[in-house]
């Protein structure tokens, strides 16, 4: 048993009257001790559920991110005129609505906006559709690439994917606890703003509950990260909803940055106000292929709605309407489909070289 960890556990688990918040350094220490197995299973389980009940602070999230920085992987800086976008999407995936983030990534990369995503396989508590399965359905297997090969693909195509089971295996034990507890611990909040990139980054996490925005802002501010976009998206993702007004928080150029509120109503831009339901993975992939082929449909509407916003937010287009028009042009001209083929070739080549090197 770790006496050091026990003292940290006592702080977060002592109730409303006697409990205390962890300092940033203490949160980093607790996170490292859990990832490295220096705390006992009983201590880790107790900490995770107690911390969930109490809710983390922005300072604690910053400390947890410090630990991830120390122990986890990072893709190295690439030459880019724009900050690299890092999408923070829930690791336990989607169960109700069709994800569009991989399509958005292809769209942005097609016009020179680099983007990084991260995640794993089907994970608790939702065991929803993960990003890697969507990419695999499109012909891209991120799961077989060591980090150096992922870096190579990222440099070539402007798209990178940090696959945590291979690139950050230390967090596997946390997922086992999460399954047994049946609840998302504060790690789930922290993952959304984790930045596995060593260069200038624009962090774009999804969120569900309004207080999460304030925690994000504090945590990123403490870590000196000034470019962010917070999206109250579908199932906590970065995908803008169509069935309601999109609530978005934008970083301002102030020092330190504040949150500027943006409300986007789909009907004001000519979109129908409904989300595309998620059916089977195979059906989703077939619909995505239609979008990449420039064919009209409900998922194309979702792709244009999201693509227009992110083209504007990246600075590629001056406003939403021009962003939507540009997104439609990129799909119908075949540029997004061409980016997918480029990515398939890069990943396939990197996988073959990795296999040849191994054997």
Automatic annotation (TrEMBL):
GO molecular function terms listed in the Swiss-Prot or TrEMBL record: anthranilate phosphoribosyltransferase activity
SUPFAM superfamilies, sorted: Nucleoside phosphorylase/phosphoribosyltransferase catalytic domain, Nucleoside phosphorylase/phosphoribosyltransferase N-terminal domain
Domain Glycosyl transferase family 3 N-terminal span(s) in chain numbering: 6-70
GO biological process, one term: L-tryptophan biosynthetic process
Glycosyl transferase family domain: residues covered: 97-335
Keywords recorded for this protein, A-Z: Amino-acid biosynthesis, Aromatic amino acid biosynthesis, Glycosyltransferase, Transferase
NCBIfam families referenced in this protein's UniProt entry, alphabetically: PRK07394.1
Protein name, entry field: Anthranilate phosphoribosyltransferase
Source taxonomy: Bacteria, Bacillati, Cyanobacteriota, Cyanophyceae, Nostocales
């Amino acid at each position: 048993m770790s006496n050091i960890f026990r003292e940290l556990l006592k702080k977060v688990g002592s109730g409303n009257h006697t409990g205390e918040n962890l300092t940033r350094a203490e949160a980093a220490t607790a996170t490292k001790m859990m990832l490295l197995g220096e705390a006992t299973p009983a201590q880790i389980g107790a900490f995770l559920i107690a911390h969930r009940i109490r809710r983390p602070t922005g300072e604690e999230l910053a400390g947890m991110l410090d630990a991830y920085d120390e122990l986890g992987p990072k893709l190295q800086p690439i030459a880019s005129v724009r900050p690299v976008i890092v999408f923070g999407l829930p690791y336990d995936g989607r169960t109700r609505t069709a994800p569009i983030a991989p399509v958005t990534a292809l769209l942005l990369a097609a016009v020179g906006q680099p983007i990084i995503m991260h995640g794993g396989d089907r994970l608790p508590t939702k065991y929803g559709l993960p990003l890697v399965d969507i990419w695999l359905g499109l012909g891209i297997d991120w799961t077989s690439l060591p980090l150096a090969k992922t870096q190579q693909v990222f440099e070539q195509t402007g798209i990178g994917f940090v696959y945590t089971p291979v690139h950050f295996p230390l967090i596997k034990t946390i997922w086992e606890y999460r399954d047994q507890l049946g609840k998302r611990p504060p790690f789930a909040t922290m993952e959304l703003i984790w930045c596995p990139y060593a260069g200038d980054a624009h962090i774009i996490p999804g969120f569900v509950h309004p207080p999460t925005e304030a925690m994000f802002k504090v945590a990123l501010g403490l870590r000196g990260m000034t470019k962010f976009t917070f999206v109250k998206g579908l199932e906590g993702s970065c995908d803008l909803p169509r069935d309601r007004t999109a609530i978005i928080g934008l970083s301002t150029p102030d020092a330190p940055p504040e949150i500027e509120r943006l409300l986007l109503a789909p009907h004001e831009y000519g979109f129908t106000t409904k989300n595309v339901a998620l059916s089977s993975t195979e059906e989703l992939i077939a619909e995505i292929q239609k979008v990449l082929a420039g064919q009209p449909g409900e998922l194309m509407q979702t792709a244009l709605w999201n693509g227009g916003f992110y083209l504007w937010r990246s600075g590629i287009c001056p406003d939403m309407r021009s962003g939507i028009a540009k997104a439609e042009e990129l799909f119908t001209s075949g540029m997004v489909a061409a980016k997918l083929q480029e990515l398939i070739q890069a990943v396939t080549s990197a996988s073959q070289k990795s296999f040849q090197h191994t054997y």
